[in-house]
C-alpha cells in the first residue's frame, strides 16, 4: 500500500489546465521526485495534496485515508508537511523562534517536547544550532532553506514535500541541501521532491515522474530516468 496516492488529479485555473488526470504514488521511506519545465504542474501537484487549491477532479489518499477534501491544517496533523518554494521564514524572528512556530496549532506539545524537537533539528542541521539566536533574515540563502525545512520537520511529519529547495543557491550549497535530504530520508522520513536541478534530484531519488503540460509522461526509477535519452535532452544540463 502506497503511503501517498494521487489518482487522476485534474486542476484548472480558470480556463488554464494545470493538471490533467495525473497519478503518482509514494511508498514509505522513498524519495520520489517530480521533474518538468516551469508551468508543467509540479507545484500544483503539491498544493493539491495539501489542499490549498481547489481540485477539478481526482482523489488524494494518505495511508489509505481519503484526504481529497480534508482541511489543510488537518492534513498537516495527519503527517504531511509542505515546505513551499521561497522558504517563507520570518526574517525578524530568531532561528529558535522560527522553529517554535513550526509547532503552532499542535496543542499536544509541551515545553519539554518542544525542546526535544528543536534539539532533533539541531542534530540534523548543526549550523542552525550555531545560529539559533540570530534573526532568520541574517542567515545565508542556504541556511534559510535549512531553517524552512527544519521548521517543517517540527511537526514530526511522516511525509515531507519540498518545493524547489535548491532554488537560487550556489552549487556547493545545493550539494549540501541534497545531502541533508538524504539524511532526512535516513532518519525515517518519506520525501516528495520538486526540483529545478533534475540531475541532482534523480541521482538521489528512488523513483521519479516527469510532468509535461500537466500530464505525467514518464515514470520510473530515478537512475533509469537519469539515463533516459528523452529526459537528458529535455531536462538535464539546462535550467527548467
Strand count, sense and barrel status of the largest sheet are: 6 strands, mixed
How far the N terminus sits from the C terminus, by CA atoms, comes to: 32 Å
User: How helical, in percent, are the residues?
Assistant: 25-40%
Unreliable spans: none
Q: How many distinct beta strands?
A: 10
Structure characterization notes:
The protein is α/β, with parallel strands linked by helices. It is built from 10 helices and 10 strands. It has helices at 42-49, 72-78, 95-101, 111-124, 126-130, 141-153, 171-186, 198-204, 222-226, 229-235; strands spanning 4-13, 16-26, 31-35, 57-62, 65-66, 80-83, 159-163, 190-194, 207-212, 215-221. The strands form 2 sheets. A 6-stranded mixed sheet has the order 6-7-8-3-9-10, sandwiched between helices. The longest helix is centred in the C-terminal third of the chain and has 16 residues, at 171-186. It starts with a strand and ends in a 5-residue tail after the last helix.
